[in-house]
Specification:
Layout: H1 9-13, E1 18-20, E2 25-27, E3 30-32, E4 36-38, E5 41-43, E6 46-54, E7 59-61, E8 64-71, E9 74-76, E10 79-81, E11 84-87, E12 92-94, E13 97-99, E14 101-105, E15 109-111, E16 113-116, E17 123-125, E18 141-144
Parallel strand pairs: 1-4, 2-5, 3-6, 4-6, 5-7, 6-8, 7-9, 8-10, 8-11, 9-12, 10-13, 11-14, 12-15, 13-16, 14-17, 16-18
Length: about 140
C-alpha cells in the first residue's frame, strides 16, 4: 500500500478535531489536547496538543503554541510550533515564530523574527489553491539555532 499525500483537512489532522467556527469570537485562553480547526476569532493564549489549522477567516491574537500547524489566517503574537509549521499564501503572522520545520507559500507575510531550531532551510513554495489572484511578497528574517 503506497503512502498517498493527505489532501483533505480531516485526513491530515487525524482524530476528531475541535472547531471554532466562522463568526465565533472567543475571549480567553484555549487549551486543546487534540487537533483544533479555527475559522473564527480568538483573543487569548492557546496551547494545542495536536495539529492546528487556522483557515483564511481565522484571527488569533495572543501567544499560540501547537504540536504542528497549518496557518492560512492571521496570528498576532508569539507563535511556537513543536514539529512542522506551514504558512499558506494568505497567512499573516505578526510576531516571533519558532519551529524546527517551516514551509512558507509565496504570498505569506511574516513580520517578526523567525527561528528554525533544527537549522534546516525554510522551504518556499507556490500554493496551488489560492483564493485571491494577487500574491503579496513574503517577508521574513530567519536565523538557525
Amino acid at each position: 500500500m503506497s503512502e498517498e499525500p493527505k489532501r483533505r483537512l480531516l485526513d491530515r489532522i487525524g482524530s476528531s478535531p475541535t472547531y471554532i467556527g466562522d463568526g465565533t469570537t472567543i475571549h480567553g485562553d484555549v487549551v486543546c489536547h487534540g487537533p483544533l480547526v479555527v475559522s473564527g476569532q480568538v483573543t487569548g493564549n492557546g496551547r494545542v496538543g495536536g495539529a492546528l489549522s487556522l483557515t483564511t477567516t481565522a484571527v488569533w491574537t495572543g501567544e499560540l503554541t501547537a504540536r504542528s500547524a497549518v496557518i492560512a489566517g492571521t496570528v498576532t503574537g508569539v507563535l511556537t510550533v513543536d514539529e512542522k509549521l506551514e504558512l499558506g499564501a494568505s497567512a499573516v503572522v505578526v510576531g516571533p515564530v519558532t519551529t524546527p520545520s517551516l514551509a512558507i507559500a509565496n504570498g505569506a507575510i511574516v513580520e517578526g523574527d523567525v527561528v528554525v531550531t533544527s537549522g534546516k532551510p525554510i522551504v518556499r513554495f507556490d500554493e496551488k489553491r489560492t483564493a485571491g489572484a494577487d500574491a503579496i511578497s513574503t517577508t521574513s528574517r530567519s536565523s538557525g539555532g
